[in-house]
Amino acid sequence: MSDLELVTHQDTLETQKRYHNRKIHIEKKMEEIPKQYDGDIRRYKKYCCGTGQIVGTEAMLDYLYISLIEQKVKKTTWERRLAAIRKYLSVIHGIEFKVEDRVAYELSAIRKMYREDQYAHLLQVRGKSAIDKNEVMDILNTLPIRAKAICLVNLVTANRPNEMVRLKINDFDLKNKSVHVYLKKQKKWHTKRLTQEVVDAINLYILEYNLKPDNYFIGRVYKNGRYESTAISEIGYYNALQRWTGLTGYNFRKSQVVAMHAAGADLPTIAQQTGHKSLETLIQHYLTVSETTVDKYL
I need a surface site. Which of 6, 55, 103, 209 has the fewest CB within 10 A? Predict the structure, then answer.
């Protein structure tokens, strides 16, 4: 065998090995069940146990039908339940939904039932309310150094909770009044602007807790005041905001969008700061006419 043939042969073996490892890795990823599905899967299994049904597609359809007819759950909740159970049955029980025509037929029928008059109220989606930005600022200005810095960043950047908990100190470019945010939903990095007030609050926070570039921006602070660099959960962050302000990250997000719009910003400008990919989503879920505006004309 010549040197060239030997190299080609070795290259082929390495390539085949790489292909094999890639496929195994992808298969494992596809078999992962998202943690947020745990609750819905647990409730489905409990329903099967309570009704004496075998875990499978028939029990799934029965549970989803009852979810609408008897439990009258919101359409968004119903869709979440379906996604969780389908993933569970696919991964754990090896059910191929692509060949289950009858299942697809019944799911389509239940979805259509949501459009009937008696169930129309279950289609309503009520997002978090926008709060007058001046009122929010009055609250934030009374907070301790750390809480104020975190809340100001959340408000001005209109970050989602999953974006806030991933921020690190080195993501901030305070000299240029900006922050680089990883948009998990869109799988890309995006730069957002900061005001001088926010920059000043961050600098105070960094100084107070002696934060390092690779530290998490939020992190965790114990009762004795000791800071720990860790990525807290979204639930943990939600609880912190509730303690500090009684508001949520989405209250901040919507308040910033409405404030920018009221100040005269056009949609592309607002989307640039919030990280919205779709202007239609921005209009539908964030820029509805406020009650205050309606009240002025009553």
Answer: 6
The pLDDT value given to residue 284: 63
In terms of Cα–Cα distance, which of 247, 230, 229 is closest to 238?
247
The per-residue pLDDT for 70 is 95
pLDDT given for residue 214 in this prediction: 97
10-residue averages of pLDDT along the chain (298 residues)? 57 80 76 84 95 95 96 90 92 86 93 92 69 90 95 95 96 97 90 97 97 96 92 92 91 89 87 82 60 58
pTM value surpassing 0.85: no
Q: What is residue 9's predicted lDDT score, i.e. its pLDDT?
A: 59
C-alpha span between 96 and 99 (Å, rounded): 6
Q: At what angle do helices 57-69 and 101-113 cross, to 10 degrees?
A: 0
3-state class (DSSP) for residue 239 = helix
Q: For residue 69, how many other CB atoms are within 10 A of its CB?
A: 11
Cβ atoms of 289 and 298 closer than 8 Å? no
Position of tokens 């099967």? 48
Q: What DSSP letter does each residue of 234-294 carry, written as one string?
A: HHHHHHHHHHHHS--HHHHHHHHHHHHHHTT--HHHHHHHHT-S-HHHHHHHH-SPPHHHH
256: Cβ–Cβ under 8 A, 6 or more apart, which residues? 133, 155, 156, 157, 158, 273, 274
Question: Residues 267, 279: contact at Cβ < 8 Å?
Answer: yes
List the beta bridge partners of residue 220: 228
- The beta strands (E) that lie in the chain are given as 172-173, 178-183, 188-193, 220-221, 227-228
Bridge pairing between strands 188-193 and 178-183: antiparallel
